[in-house]
Amino acid sequence: MISKITLAMSIVLLLGSSFVMGISADEDNHIIRDKFNMEYQAFIKAFNTFDASRSTPGSESRKYLQNIADLGVPVLPCIYDKMKENNEYSKFLKIPFYRITKKHFDKFEWPKGQDSAVEVIISWYTTGRKQTPQRFNQLYTDWKNLKKRGKTNEANAKYQKMCDLGIDALPLIMQQIEKGDKELIPMASYLTDNNVKPDTKPSDCLNWWNNNKDEWTLPNTK
Questions:
Q1: Fewer CB within 10 Å: C terminus or N terminus of the chain?
Q2: What is the C-alpha to C-alpha distance for residues 31 and 162, in angstroms, rounded to an integer?
Q3: Taking Cα atoms as reference points, which of 198, 175, 195, 194 lies closest to residue 185?
Q4: How distant, in Å, are the alpha carbons of 52, 82, 88 from that of 55?
Q5: Calpha distance 74→10 (Å, rounded)
Q6: How many other C-beta atoms can be found within 10 angstroms of the C-beta atom of residue 15?
Q7: Which of 132, 143, 204 is closest to 172 using CA atoms?
Q8: Closest Cα to residue 98, out of 70, 69, 75?
Q9: Nearest Cα to 92, choosing from 40, 167, 168, 164?
Q10: Which of 182, 180, 184, 172 lies closest to 137, judged by CA?
């Protein structure tokens, strides 16, 4: 009789490892979505119980939003789908969204006709973030030029603008670190919640990224 291990290996050889890994990824997505739904429903219950007269979540309901944020980058599609419902509760999902992505929107990113943060987030997550590489490259060039000219304050402002692009800029930051720019390591540290230490070696930073980038890369929208 063929053992289960032999059978599993045969399936991998016939269908490819990506098939098996795809099943695991789907299972992980279901787990994340189930956890999200549980925390979101708990948030709604707590908000109605403790914060019905408030315009913002209090400490009791906010802890469930933190639990959602703690699920990390993989929960973003769940947040995005729920925010599109644009109801009295889903608007508060901007809180875990900001905590996960660390994205800060500039004035020019608030298109006309989009009055709420929810609309801006949805627009950016759907299409706007495609501009991140162009935006980062321009800011990076400006930052380097300002440093060479000794304009420290202006250079620091550009550095902060790069940070404000959020975790969507991490692949671009790592590319520059790989080219030898150690000054971006503190930026990577901030965006990765100190998983990369500010004083880590470039090689260690890049090793961490290669081992963890799938967990820190924004998923594509459908």
A1: N
A2: 33
A3: 198
A4: 8, 19, 10
A5: 31
A6: 11
A7: 132
A8: 69
A9: 40
A10: 172
The answer to whether 155 and 143 are in contact (CB under 8 A) is: yes
Q: Which two three-digit tokens encode residue 212?
A: 């963890």
pLDDT single digits (tens) 161-220: 999 999 999 999 999 999 999 999 999 999 999 999 999 999 999 999 999 999 999 987
Cα dist from 97 to 75, 84, 91, 139, 147, whole Å: 9, 13, 10, 24, 32
Tokens of 168: 């969507």
DSSP string spanning the chain?
A: ---HHHHHHHHHHHH-HHHHHHHHHHHHHHHHHHHHHHHHHHHHHHHHHH-TT-SS--HHHHHHHHHHHTT-GGGHHHHHHHHTT--TTGGGGHHHHHHHH-----GGGS-TT--SHHHHHHHHHHTGGGGHHHHHHHHHHHHHHHHHTT-HHHHHHHHHHHHHTGGGGHHHHHHHHHTT-GGGHHHHHHHTTTSS-TT--HHHHHHHHHHHHHHHSPPPP-
Residue with tokens 């009295």, as numbered in its chain: 88
pLDDT beneath 70: ranges in the chain: 1-25, 111-115, 221-222
